[in-house]
Amino acid sequence: MQIALIGLPNSGKTTIFNALTRGTADVASYGGSYSKPNIGIAKVRDPRLTKLVDIYIPERVVQAEVAYIDFPAQADNKGDSNNISGEYLNHLQGADILTIVSRTFEDPAVPHINETVDVVRDIVTMSDELLLVDLQILERRLEKLVEGHKGAKIDERDKLDRETSLLTRLKADLESSIPIREQAISQEEFKLIQGYKLLSAKPLVVVPNIGEDHLADLDKLETNLTNAMRNKSINLAMLCGTLEMELAQMDSCDEAEFRQSLGVIVSGLDRMVELAYKTSNKITFFTVGADEVKAWPLDRGTTAQKAAGKIHTDIERGFIRAEIVSYDDLIMCGTETEARRQGILRSQGKSYVISDGDVVNFLFNV
What percent of the chain has pLDDT over 70? Predict the structure, then answer.
């Protein structure tokens, strides 16, 4: 899963990136322009994996991973879609989730690009920038459809007319500040526009970056801002970037102790991963054995045969059946052998829909 971090200059975006990836990217160039994005990997901490390791004692343990991409903010960017183009646009279009980092903290040493701090205004500014990019994409496509219609054969014109009608409708809603993800689009229509990789169709997460002086009011602030943004299809989690970055560099024991003293028990990384899974409608299944115990992220609603393809295309192609036991049932039984004896471990065919926490062994023949 790839998550793109975007935001206005001086929003603390790179600080958040370092907190989430335990990275050390330079955060000193306030308002500067970066030529390349920062890319980092975060391991998904799942307590279920630890208990499975206790059962199988494998040679190798593989956690699920989330890739964070911290995109450069242009020093003169106040919400201008001209700043999202070329390689920058390609990277954003390849992301699974877009995350807007917006500052709530006051710091005279780090002036806001718009002079005053207004978290809602900045969120809307960045959201509108994504809409403007999509409008430009649709306008270019509509121009090509008009040109293509002139020389099209009669049997091709109906298809072009349907696409023109759809894009015209989507464009009108975008002009009314309605992102693609909030528009009424059928599955068939969504398939038609999937190739355009529209940014406002992607799941959106908002991270208000608060100062340490607001930690005591974090829950209240988060509730108030969630209510203020209730008409937007976004998911929101407040983080204190500077604190989370400092804690991320600590030894795990020291970090846990310090968090306890501050009352910030759940790490920013864990909160963001949980939110990413929720936002993108992901679940986790596990493969286990003496050689390896591994967690696999998966789209909710995926069938067993398609899930097998996550491991290897040959397993999907030669799929016979899947032996499945839920995580809770396996922990209750203590061993796979006992789960099989009790009839809890079961065989499922290719159309079985994988559930969160399923422990799966795929049988295949190629």
Answer: 94
Please tell me the total count of domains within the chain.
Answer: 3
Q: Is 145 exposed, middle or buried (0-12, 13-18, 19+ CB in 10 A)?
A: middle
Residue 84 belongs to a domain with what CATH number? 3.40.50.300
Check whether residue 317 and residue 271 sit in a common domain.
no
- Residue 129: phi, psi to the nearest 5? -65, -40
Average pLDDT over residues 213-228: 80
Q: Quick one: 124 exposed, middle or buried, by C-beta within 10 A (0-12, 13-18, 19+)?
A: middle
DSSP 34-55: -SS-EEEEEE---HHHHHHHHH
pTM of the model: 0.86
211 and 142 in a common domain: no
Q: Are residues 85 and 163 in the same domain?
A: no
Instruction: Identify which of 229, 239, 259, 234 has the alpha carbon closest to the alpha carbon of residue 12.
Output: 239
How many whole angstroms separate alpha carbon 160 and alpha carbon 209? 45
Kindly state whether residues 192 and 217 are assigned to the same domain: no
CB atoms within 10 A of CB 198: 22
CATH number of domain containing 330 = 3.10.20.30
* Domain span including residue 252: 2-45+62-116+202-280
Say whether both 186 and 209 belong to one domain: no
Q: Are 120 and 225 in contact (CB under 8 A)?
A: yes
pLDDT(31) > 50: no
Strand partners, 235: 205
Pairing of strands 60-62, 65-70: unpaired
- In angstroms, the CA 313 to CA 42 distance is 26
Laid out side by side, the sheet with 358-364 consists of 60-62, 292-299, 282-287, 358-364, 319-326, 346-348
Evaluate if residue 136 carries a pLDDT over 90: yes
Tokens read off for 15? 């600080």
pLDDT of residue 233: 66
Alpha-carbon distance of 44 to 339, in angstroms, equals 27
Res 89: pLDDT:
87
